[in-house]
């Protein structure tokens, strides 16, 4: 016991710093390393992204208990959340809010009985690595938040569902890489308390082919 006490007293500054960092990441802001290609072309594997934990709610640190609502999540927001299926931390795009009636027809969304429009994108964008099939990049015109998505016609995926009504206090999440994403089509709606932050910026991406230096085009990149 005396040995433990001496170790704590001798390292109390370091311990306080670590506890402060844990509190900061749990309650105020967090950073998250994108592990998969489910959000291509918006986010790529290895992106270190900034997640604002105070974007929507104030939570009791280290829990999902909401103490105060600050703002409502909006269609088009990119968010981190805890998967209701297995508890993993995921990052997806929030495409429908409570009360929305959502349908997908052959990969294209219909929200509140209004079909979104899609246009082919010809400018160079990051495409899914290690996939040799056809990849189509489209601009999905989600009202107020247009963004690019990827479709893979040759890959098995859920491309049609609904119409379904998003329940109260829950949200529908989709990956921008529509045929390469485990999202609400597979894990169900996501409760508000499971949302852990809004992703607003890519902090950096280290380039393994260039001595792990940050890629300039991903440095402090606003979403």
What keywords describe this structure?
single chain, 223 residues, mainly beta, Umud Fragment, subunit A, eight-stranded antiparallel beta sheet, four-stranded antiparallel beta sheet
List the helices and strands and how they pair.
Blueprint lengths: L1 H9 L1 H16 L1 E5 L14 E5 L4 E3 L6 E4 L8 E5 L6 E8 L4 E5 L2 E4 L2 E2 L2 E3 L15 E5 L6 E5 L9 E5 L4 E5 L9 H4 L2 E2 L3 E10 L1 E2 L5 E2 L6 E2 L1
Structural notes for this entry:
The model has no long low-confidence stretch (mean pLDDT 89). Helix content is 13%, strand content 37%. The relative contact order is 0.20. It has one domain (30-222): Ribbon (Umud Fragment, subunit A). The chain is built from three helices and 19 strands. It is mostly beta strands.
Structural class: mainly beta
Number of domains: 1
* Number of helical segments with 4 or more residues: 3
The residue fraction in helices comes out at 10-25%
Q: Report the average pLDDT across residues.
A: 89
In CATH, the topology is named Umud Fragment, subunit A
In short:
This protein is mainly beta and 223 residues long. The protein has three helices and 19 strands. It has one domain (30-222): Umud Fragment, subunit A, CATH 2.10.109.
């Amino acid at each position: 016991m005396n040995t433990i006490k001496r170790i704590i007293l001798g390292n109390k500054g370091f311990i306080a710093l670590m506890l402060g960092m844990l509190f900061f990441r749990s309650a105020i802001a967090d950073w998250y390393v994108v592990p998969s290609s489910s959000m291509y072309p918006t986010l790529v594997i290895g992106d270190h992204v900034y997640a604002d934990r105070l974007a929507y709610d104030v939570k009791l640190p280290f829990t999902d208990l909401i103490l105060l609502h600050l703002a409502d999540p909006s269609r088009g927001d990119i968010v981190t959340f805890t998967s209701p299926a297995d508890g993993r931390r995921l990052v997806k795009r929030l495409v429908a809010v409570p009360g929305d009636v959502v349908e997908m027809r052959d990969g294209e969304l219909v929200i509140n009985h209004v079909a979104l429009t899609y246009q082919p994108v010809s400018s160079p964008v990051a495409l899914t690595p290690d996939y040799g099939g056809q990849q189509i990049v489209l601009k999905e015109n989600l009202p107020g938040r247009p963004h690019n998505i990827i479709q893979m016609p040759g890959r098995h995926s859920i491309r049609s569902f609904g119409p379904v009504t998003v329940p109260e206090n829950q949200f529908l999440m989709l990956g921008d890489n529509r045929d390469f994403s485990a999202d609400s089509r597979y894990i169900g709606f996501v409760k508000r308390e499971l949302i852990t932050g809004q992703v607003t910026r890519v902090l950096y991406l280290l380039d393994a082919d260039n001595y792990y230096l940050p890629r300039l085009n991903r440095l402090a990149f606003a979403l």
